[in-house]
Amino acid sequence: MQKQLKIFTESKQFQMFFIGIILLSGVVVGLDSYPEISEEYGTILHSLDSIILGLFVFEIVLKLISFTPRVHDFFKDGWNMFDFIIVSACFLPFDGQSVIVLRLLRVLRVVRLVGTIQELKLIVNTLLKSIPSLGYIGVLLFILFYIYACLGTFLFRENDPIHFESLHISLLSLFRVATLEDWTDIMYTAIYGCQNYGYS
């Protein structure tokens, strides 16, 4: 029976059904964020949320049964662990002051979509495995920023002391340009100088 249940829980139809439930959960949470909709249809939305939570519990119970007698194998998968924690946390007793935590948990249930769709799961797993390499990319970017900040300080300090007065200010200005945060202001100041472009 466990083998048949495992085949059932891993079937495309089962996964597509719960993808739809997760999407519906996201829609319900989104609608509940509008005060006017929440006031008028709050009872319906909360009833839908309870049904959705019940279906999530049903899904996890089926998966746990399919892993018997080696139930601990279910928790070896990080995504299964994430699903279990998010769904279980929704049953914790929250008082009126902790309603924001409950809403956050309801929003996090939408993240389960990542663990359900194989393509998204592959992308996230690849990103997680590449985190150590991202650290070296960060070091390389810092070296480049540092070199160009030094050059910017030497070359543009007199023309634009507002943005290139010192090394740390130059680093901040370069970060501003890299993120496209009002970068044209720095460009025109470099072209016309502080005296002729808004600074005196």
Automatic annotation (TrEMBL):
Subcellular location: Membrane
Keywords per UniProt: Membrane, Transmembrane, Transmembrane helix
GO cellular component: voltage-gated sodium channel complex
GO MF, any single term: voltage-gated sodium channel activity
Keyword Transmembrane listed: yes
Membrane-crossing residue ranges in chain numbering: 12-31, 51-69, 81-105, 134-156
Primary localisation category: membrane
Key word Methyltransferase present: no
Gene3D superfamilies for the chain: 1.10.287.70, Voltage-gated potassium channels. Chain C
Membrane protein topology class: Multi-pass membrane protein
SUPFAM superfamilies: Voltage-gated potassium channels
Domain Ion transport: 12-194
Name listed for the protein in its UniProt record: Ion transport domain-containing protein
